[in-house]
Task: structure prediction
Amino acid sequence: VLEQEFFVTNNGKYAVNVEVKNRRKVIADILEIADREATLEPGQKHTFKVRLAPQKEMQCPELRRRSARGDELELVVREAKTGDLVQTNLPPIAVTFRAMFNSFTVSPPRGLNFAPVRIGDTSSHEFELYNDGMFRFEWYLFDPSKPRAEGLEKREAAEGKVDEKGKGGGKGGKDAKDGKESKTEMVVGPFKISPAEGSLNPKESRKVE
Result:
């Protein structure tokens, strides 16, 4: 969810009612305006907060529209006493955004083939995580044979987010203000994996052994 804000000031001599309206229904479900109506006395200022929460890849203005402008919001001003419309001669409020999912690549894409390994010997292979998207993300590996909830609970306990009884701020973990110890490796059956978690900025890669 992203949030932007703008403000409107009544520079006139009389009280007015202001309202922000969506001009197009296509973004009405993903664009939320807090306190979209307000009454302003002379010299009074009101701040409008606009929250954007897209649920799919999309952009505004749309490429297929004839106009390249994102005139999505309209400011309506009326006299507080009479309700008469005030001609402000202000252009519509442009809204521009591009919502998209992040993207990453795992190489090699078809897994790791250790081939026959003699008992007692050790064989090592690597795979690489590459963030080819536009956003930073955190990643971690988990044992698929264990329930996901159990894996998350153990991970949070290791980070100090919950104690042994499942309550926050336990004695065994570190507080977020003191920093946290990253999980450098994990063991799943006969396999040891390092590192088991981390974060990647755009265009960064990380090798996992």
User: Anything to note?
Assistant: The CA atoms of residues 78 and 84 lie 5 Å apart. The helical segments are 148-158. The longest helix spans residues 148-158.
